[in-house]
């Protein structure tokens, strides 16, 4: 997956807690110049950004969806996102599961990243 072509990134699992990865990753990508769209049913605003309650609310022109949630939440949001038309998905370490990886193999027209940390992969 070529992250240099990515501009708009949705963060599923965004949080206001500055010690959690849902906030750390959001701030990191924002600082690096990505347009970040937080997704969380818990908050209206995260780091000054309007929050979307679900991937179903996201605008259609999101380039990449990053998952920083437990796998049981991730699989549900992945299915919703795929059904909405999104095709690029990044699962932060710990957000993936065997079920998600197996499901990803059935989606031939989608691009996935597992295990790698997006903060490390965007250090250019």
TrEMBL record:
It comes from the Bacteria. SUPFAM superfamilies: NAD(P)-binding Rossmann-fold domains. Residues 3-95 form the CoA-binding domain. This is CoA-binding protein. It comes from Fervidobacterium islandicum.
